[in-house]
Design brief:
alpha+beta; 30% helix
């Protein structure tokens, strides 16, 4: 049968319209404000339901204050799942929402500052299937908890938004697209956008807050007389004073074993016991190395079966017999535990409410991952390392740590977090002064030597500062409970290994330049905590120190 060109056109048109047909029936657009603002993002200074929203409520400009409300109302002509369906018609609605969400792009004065693909957990699934309008509280005077608040924090504090919105008049523009991540990332067209003129007031800071803080006597360190750029440090102090870097409590810089910089902020001081959260994990690595050095542990290749009757725990498999201390130190043990995944059975938030953290961990199932190959952040595994040390050393972990690590370093004031069994928890929470944390960093910088005495074997330091995941493109590397980090200043890279804890806490040991840094902070659970600490180091501290090298 001969097919006419007209008939062929109809067939093709039907095929493509079938491919692009909506997967669900989105809510009808009946509200007059929505009809007038289709495909727009509008800005509000209060929470208003769409039923009560008036055209006069929509802001074209505002004086921007970090403590006041900044709300978005987004109007689209379809639901998210239907936009995603256009990107891949082969997937079901639920599959689309597992692999895609909204992409937000933030522009200031025409320059893109930050772009984020929201994770799948942001937003209610049914809303994303049917809704064509939604509200986003970006800044809330009553700290309303929402994914929008954390999105704003990442843009504003974590990715230079606060620098782009310095005092003066600025145009903030937001664009929203759908994105889908399967084997490749697909991004759709803009489905909503809008802009507002923000008048940003001048922040105030005093000379006392900005000035370099002189190092007081009796620090326990020799004081360096090496030069650095005071103006860079003043700029850093100004940003801390103006809360452009938030909730910073201390900065310590050691150069060639001498105290070069000591600064405190936000009512913190030299004697404050800083709660550095997971910085304490790196102390587990040190204590394991000392216990091996002393012969209480045979080595990091010892397996769990040498310390526990694994068959007495749930989900036993022969694979658990092969889990080594090293795999726990490198967070590659193969247990089904990932603190970055809220759905993971071994997530640390599932551990803390239990009455036995060791049993919780050893009860976990194993994954298909080969032991030692795949990295995932696993706090519970570090708790097991602490328990192994505790049962192996004389008089237990608390006494051993004091005798073998803290006393030799001259650290007398510190505070442990404890497990439900009242044993020191090596998951984190170890508190001490910023200067004492610097001693721990300098110990590693000195290849395990402190005041001429070997506390750690230099080979253990080398193993701790080795990257065991060179093929992992998601992060820069990991050693024995130390993070690898490369800072860039100009066209030069500076490799470091560091202890890192919730809130933006850091002990940073540089490999090829003579510096140890400590940053203490209280930005707990804030999405900008680590990025602002990294920025402090890369854009202020290192340039200040290296300018006079």
């Amino acid at each position: 049968m001969k097919i006419t060109s007209t008939f062929a056109f109809v067939l093709i048109s039907c095929f493509y319209s079938g491919q692009n047909r909506d997967i669900v029936n989105a809510d009808k657009i009946e509200n007059q404000i929505q009809k007038k603002n289709i495909n727009k993002v509008i800005f509000l200074d209060k929470s208003i339901s769409i039923e009560n929203l008036k055209e006069s409520d929509i802001l074209k400009s505002m004086v921007f204050q970090e403590s006041q409300n900044l709300d978005l109302r987004v109007f689209t002509d379809n639901s998210l799942v239907n936009y995603l369906h256009q990107l891949d018609p082969s997937l079901t609605a639920d599959e689309l929402l597992q692999k895609g969400n909204y992409q937000f792009s933030f522009y200031v004065d025409g320059k893109m500052i930050y772009q984020e693909n929201l994770n799948k957990g942001a937003g209610i699934p049914d809303d994303k299937k049917f809704k064509t309008t939604f509200r986003i509280p970006l800044v809330s005077s009553n700290n309303e908890d929402s994914w929008g608040r954390y999105l704003w924090m990442r843009f504003y504090f974590g990715h230079d938004g606060i620098d782009a919105l310095q005092s003066g008049n600025h145009i903030l523009k937001i664009e929203i697209r759908p994105y889908l991540k399967t084997s490749v990332l697909k991004t759709g067209n803009i489905i909503a956008s809008g802009e507002i003129n923000l008048n940003v007031p001048q922040k105030s800071s005093s000379e006392t807050q900005i000035a370099l803080q002189p190092i007081q006597p009796h620090s326990g360190w020799k004081v360096s007389d090496d030069k650095f750029s005071p103006e860079k440090i003043r700029l850093l102090n100004k940003k801390i004073a103006e809360e452009r870097f938030k909730e910073i409590t201390g900065i310590i810089v050691i150069k060639n074993d001498k105290l070069l910089l000591e600064e405190y902020f936000n009512k913190s001081g030299r004697d404050s016991l800083q709660d550095t959260r997971s910085v304490g994990k790196s102390f587990a690595s040190a204590l394991a190395g000392i216990a091996i050095q002393d012969g209480y542990l045979k080595g990091e290749h010892q397996s769990l079966k040498e310390f526990y009757n694994l068959k007495s725990f749930k989900n036993y498999s022969s694979k658990k017999d092969s889990v080594t201390i090293k795999s726990l130190l490198t967070m590659s043990s193969g247990f089904d535990g990932n603190d970055d995944n809220s759905d993971s059975p071994g997530n640390e938030e599932n551990m803390y409410p239990t009455d036995n953290w060791i049993q919780f961990t050893l009860d976990l199932p194993m994954t298909e991952d080969k032991i030692g190959e795949n990295w995932s952040y696993f706090t519970a595994g570090v708790v097991v390392v602490g328990d192994i040390i505790n049962q192996s050393v004389p008089k237990g972990l608390e006494n051993y740590a004091d005798k073998k690590l803290f006393q030799p370093l001259g650290i007398s004031k510190y505070k442990w977090q404890f497990t439900p069994q009242q044993k020191p928890s090596l998951a984190g929470g170890l508190r001490m002064s910023a200067l004492d944390f610097a001693k721990f960093g300098q110990l590693y910088k000195n290849n395990g030597i402190w005041n001429g005495k070997a506390i750690l074997d230099k080979n253990w330091v080398h193993k701790s500062f080795s990257n065991y995941f060179t093929d992992n493109k998601d992060f820069e590397g990991y050693g024995y409970l130390f993070w690898r980090k490369v800072y860039q200043v100009g066209n030069k890279n500076f490799e470091a290994y560091q202890c890192s804890g919730n809130g933006g806490n850091k002990i940073i040991v540089f490999k090829d330049i003579p510096f140890v840094m400590v940053i203490t902070a209280k930005a707990y659970n804030k999405p900008y905590a680590h990025s602002q600490a990294d920025k402090m180091v890369q854009e202020y501290l290192l340039p200040a120190l290296l300018g006079n090298e």
